[in-house]
Amino acid sequence: MFKIVEKRALAENIYLLRIEAPRVAQSALPGQFVIVRVDEQGERVPLTIADFDKEQGSVTIVIQAIGVSTRKLCTMNEGDSIADFAGPLGNPSEFVNMSAEELAKRHFLFVAGGVGTAPVYPQVKWLNEHGAKVDVIIGAKTDSLLIYTEKVCDNLYIATDDGSRGFKGLVTAKIKQLIDEEGKDYNECIAIGPMIMMKFVTLTTREYSLRTTVSLNALMVDGTGMCGACRVSVGGKTLFTCVDGPEFDGHQVDFDEAMRRQAMYRNLESDANEKHNHKCNCYGK
Predict the structure, then answer these.
(1) Quick check: bond before 246 cis, omega within 30?
(2) What pTM value is reported for the model?
(3) Exposed/middle/buried for residue 175 (C-beta within 10 Å: 0-12, 13-18, 19+)
(4) What is the dihedral sign for C-alpha 86, 89, 95, 97?
(5) How many Cα atoms within 13 Å fall on the side-chain side of residue 172?
(6) Cα separation of 162 and 174, whole Å?
(7) What is the rounded distance in angstroms from the CA atom of residue 233 to the CA atom of residue 198?
(8) What's the maximum distance between 2 C-alpha atoms anywhere in the chain?
(9) Which residues 6+ apart lie within 8 Å of 178 measured at CB?
(10) Is the pLDDT of residue 157 over 80?
(11) In the prediction, which pLDDT does 106 show?
């Protein structure tokens, strides 16, 4: 069993859980994920690592309460324990293999949206600790949906669709402003967030021949590659997000196919939510 040592609400239906998991924390690297199972009857839920502390032996995850399993996980509190917390899984971010000399010469741009902002944090923290220069754009529809704005990095830019905070407009417009108007020169862009956001970020960065890495963790189901649900076409080849990724060259990803695959399970998820709600109503929960 794995104990929840901290729980915090970050935004509506979005929660931070810090889990006591010393072995996972000891081996974790930026970009990797874990598989969480609430109880013995629960489904496997892949979640990207949002932080890890080797000394404290804890791993942080951020969950949006959408389906039955994530909603159940979000109802748990400090002191409760979850059945399984397996990891770290997947390949870490490529930059962890770079030398200190290489990192010191590089300027990274991170573009984050929604709960995708959480896994950006350990990557930015790692890069800052190793001497790289980092800028971060965090986007959301409105101010109340923003998370992690207080701790990501010093060079932080906020973009909201309604202008309630920071730049008024999409993250893609902010990218253009930073490069075209402020003269920013980046070596690599890393985008993590909704699939549609990552698609248009890659279309924008292609105009500048800016290498762009995207995280396709939202496609994962069982986290082992056995279910086949996370198949994705990258450069014309079929790869599996959970074993070959979760990070890929965004300019090579077939996003239209990925979004179609992501939508395949929406009806099943809706049915599961309805059954769960009906069961809860019947038992007065």
Answers:
(1) yes
(2) 0.86
(3) buried
(4) positive
(5) 13
(6) 14
(7) 15
(8) 62
(9) 109, 135, 137, 157, 184
(10) yes
(11) 94
